[in-house]
Each structure stands twice: as C-alpha cells, then as structure tokens.
Amino acid sequence: MSTSLDGLQFPINPASNKASTSQTGKEIIAEALSIVDNKSSMDALTEKNWRKNYPIYFKALVEHGIRSTNNPITIAKQGLHKAHHSFDFYRNGQRYLLKDIMNDVDTADLHTVQLKGESHAAPEWYVPYKGQKLQGQALLDQIQTWQDAGIIELSHADALRAAQAHPEWFNLSDRTMVLFGAGSEAGPLTWLSKWKANIVAVDLPNSRVWDKILKTIQQGNATLYAPCAEKLDENTPTATLKKKLGADLLTQTPEIAHWLTQSEHQLDLAAIAYLDGEKHVRVSMAMDSIMQYVSERKADTSLMFMCTPTDVYAVPKEVVEASHEKFQQRSKTQQIISKSISTVSGQHFFKENLKTLISSDNGKEYGIADCLVVEQGPNYALAKRIQQWRATLARHSGQRVSINIAPSTTTHSVTKNPLLKAAFNGASLFDVESFSPETTNALMAALWVHDLRNPDSVANPETPLAHPLELMMKGANHGGLWRVAYLARTALPFAAIYGFANDKLPMKKIYGLFKK
C-alpha cells in the first residue's frame, strides 16, 4: 500500500478515503458504554450531531461508572481495547494496527544524551501568585483562602499542606521522571530542574523547544536524559544539542517505548503532552501505548496525568449540596438578572447546576459535575478520557497513579482562543478562579511529589478507595467550577461576554449587582 501517511493516525474510511475523527470517537465511546448501558451505546453510534451532543455520552460514562464499583474498570477496559484496535500506525508505506506496533514495526535505536545542571542550590518550593512568592505561613493562609472559597477541594489543600510540611520530599535525586511533552507550558520541568530530579525529557526534534529545555536544565540542579537519533560525543556543545535532540511521540512511538525500557531505573511516566484538535487524541494514544508497554516490562513504573476542570466528573455528595445551596442563596438581584437573561436567551444561560445524586452499590451517593465546554470539542474530551481510563485501570492493577485535576490556566494554547480567554477573564463573576501558568505549575508539581512520597496518598494502590472514581475526586483544584450555582457551560458564555467588556462601566455595574 503506497501512502504518504506517517506515524499514528485515525483510521481511514475506505469509502471516502478520509479519516473521520467523529466516527472513531463515537465507536470508542459506544464500546466503552456497551456492557454498562447498551442503549446509550447504540445511541452514541447513531448520533448525527456528535460535535454538539457528545456531552450526553460522556455524562453517561460517568453516571454508569458511579452506579457500580466494577463499572469504571469495565468502561476503561472496553474503551482502551477499542481505541488500541482502532488507530493505525504507518511506517515506510505500510499500515499497522496501533496495538501491534511495539512488536511488528522495525525500529531504529535512540541514543541517550546526558546533561547536568550547573546549580548547587538546595531544593526549594514556593508558589508564585499575583507577584508574590508564597512560602511558610503566607502559603498556608492562601491555601486556606482557596479552600474556604471552594476553589480547591479539602484533599487538594491537605496535599499542599503536607508538601509544605515535608521539604525533604522535594529532593528528587532518587527519582527518574519521564516527561512526555517536556517543554509543555503547563508542565513541571522548571520545578523538577530545581529539585535534583533525573529528568527524561521527550519532546519534538525542534531547536526552539530544546533551547528552552536545555537552558532550564543548565540553570538548575537536575540531570537531563534526552533521546537522540545519533550517538553524540559527551562534550557536544548545547548549541549543537538543541538541533539534534528529540523524538516525535506520533511517529517514533515504538522507538521511545523501547528506549525507555532500557533504563535500569524505576520510572515515573508523566503524560503531559498537548496538541491542538485531533492531534491531541493521537498524542494521548501514543503516550498510552508507551505507558502500557513500559509498565508491562517494568512493574514498578508509576504514572502521572493532569486532568482538565472542563470535563465531567463524579463528585462527592457534599459538593453537589454546596452547589445547590449556592443556587438557593442567590440574592434577589441575582435571581432577577439570571432569570431575565435565561428567558431572553431561550434558556441557554444560567441553568442550575446538576443536583441529582446517584446511588452506588458501595452504599454511597455521588453527584456529577458536568463542566464540559462544548466549544473545546469531542476530540479534547476523548483525549482526556483516554487518560482517565488508563489511570483507573493501572491503579486497579496495582500501579501507583498520580492523577489530579489542574485548574483552568491561562496558557497560550488556551488564551489564543478568544472565547475561552474572555470566559476566563470573566469567570470571577461566578466565583471561579483561573490561574497563571507559573502558579499552576508550582501547585501541580508539588502534588505530583506528594503523590510519590506520601504513603497515604490515593495514588498509592494500597490506600483504600470506596469507589474507583474517587481517584479523580481526590486532590482536585477545579478553580471553583464544581461548586458554581449554574451548569458551567450555561454561565461561562455570559462570563465571556463580561470578559470581553470588563473595562466598560455597565459591565462593572453588573458585576456589582451579581455580588450583592
């Protein structure tokens, strides 16, 4: 078969000779639902407007996941099995199923380049926040403020407090931490480089990316291990290195997997790579394939993921009750304004947040926080769901898994979307906080350290959980989205309108009215 395609791809429809991301997404979600809810599975397969209606089926995954402690495992197994049997991998004009590439594709060796940081500073952690470097009591006070405001959950606050109380945790000279997408703006590279970590950096062969990575490492006290297609002299200058280093997750998937298994050290694998659109699904599948392959050959491997708050989650009963209470306690002015806008908009704005509780076979009740933003699209939702499935399944199988919800963050990939940028600018109208990248990085890097160091963390598979979905509930920093009075996607459009015009007096007046 002659083709110009290379690497990991969505399957090509023989009739149209084009890839259909919607069809593949529908089939994966349908398969994930097939055993727990056959009707929803069939409905997903026949859905005619997937891009608009996909939240229905992602919510169904969570709803049926809640009902039984076995269901999240079944859903994850079904979904991942279908995904690995759906995607293709192309090499030298030949097509392979993704599930077969680790054994069937001829690979070239990757070589390792090592670089030590030049700093001898002791590991230190602080949180950059609004121009301050929060440490000690100032940090503890801010953690409490976030907790009291419902920006972070108690479990997230407690993890940060534990990290602050154990500065010795931040000496990571005994850890080998693999960053897929090492140069990611929302990733922990900058902090790990200050904490003496052994950092295995995987990112595209791109001199701009590697210039940033190499400079970060040189300024810190960590040790970098980077892949290279050719064997280089150990004295190769960094000006040359930045043009030589790197490996592509999408086209060199088996090479990266084989390279990592050659390490003699225990590995902590972090799936932090992000790409726009359908590439995000593909890179998530590439990371998943590598994680699965390495974990099967190195049983002590741990996994790390960062969830988005703009997704749909099972949440504790207390969170649902807090959201409902916030809705009930709105001022008369708020009620009049929100009802009027809702009426004018044809009920598109200001729907009450979901308050239904779902009973599980473990005797507990859980709610659903539906914070999906339709505009982000089904590919984004699928990419993040694949990561949740792997986390759920890996922990169930006895692996240590750090997976925490990171807050909405004003990274370039987010703020280049004018609608999302405006929504974040206006989110404070509904007691939602978005974070700068430097703040998110500091918080989430510390949470990863906590999950690796604290034996009582839910990342430890020996720590009991009443339900598998509690793995995603613990440690959540959702920025307040879980506890807002309104269904997030029916309030954020108005937040965007406010964000676009937040310098105009009439909008400031509305802000004042909402806060009365």
Walk me through what this model shows.
- This protein is α/β, with parallel strands linked by helices and about 525 residues long.
- It has a domain of about 100 residues.
- Helix content is about 45%, strand content about 15%.
- The strands form five sheets. A seven-stranded mixed sheet has the order 6-11-10-9-12-13-17, sandwiched between helices. Strands 1-4-5 form a three-stranded antiparallel sheet. Strands 14-16-15 form a three-stranded antiparallel sheet.
- β15 and β16 form a beta hairpin.
- The longest helix is centred in the middle third of the chain and has 20 residues.
Any idea what the radius of gyration is? 23 Å
Strands of the biggest beta sheet: in what spatial order?
Answer: 6-11-10-9-12-13-17
Number of beta strands: 17
Helix content: 40-55%
- The mean pLDDT is 89
The rough form would be described as globular
Secondary structural class: alpha/beta
Taking the sheet with the most strands, its summary is: 7 strands, mixed
Continuous helix count:
21
Poorly predicted parts: 503-507, 509-514
End-to-end span in angstroms? 67 Å
Beta content comes to 5-15%
Summarize the structure.
This protein has a domain at 7-106.
Attribute tags:
516 residues, alpha/beta
Write the layout of secondary structure elements.
Layout: E1 7-9, E2 12-13, E3 18-19, H1 21-33, H2 38-46, H3 50-67, H4 71-86, E4 88-91, E5 94-97, H5 101-104, E6 111-116, E7 127-129, E8 132-134, H6 136-148, H7 154-165, E9 176-180, H8 189-192, E10 198-202, H9 207-219, E11 223-228, H10 238-244, H11 253-261, E12 267-271, H12 278-297, E13 302-307, E14 312-316, H13 317-328, H14 332-344, E15 358-359, E16 365-370, H15 377-396, E17 401-405, H16 412-415, H17 418-426, H18 437-453, H19 470-473, H20 488-500, H21 505-515
Parallel strand pairs: 9-10, 9-12, 10-11, 12-13, 13-17
Antiparallel strand pairs: 1-4, 2-3, 4-5, 6-11, 7-8, 14-16, 15-16
Helix pairs in contact: 1-2, 1-3, 1-4, 3-4, 4-15, 6-7, 7-18, 9-10, 11-12, 12-15, 17-20
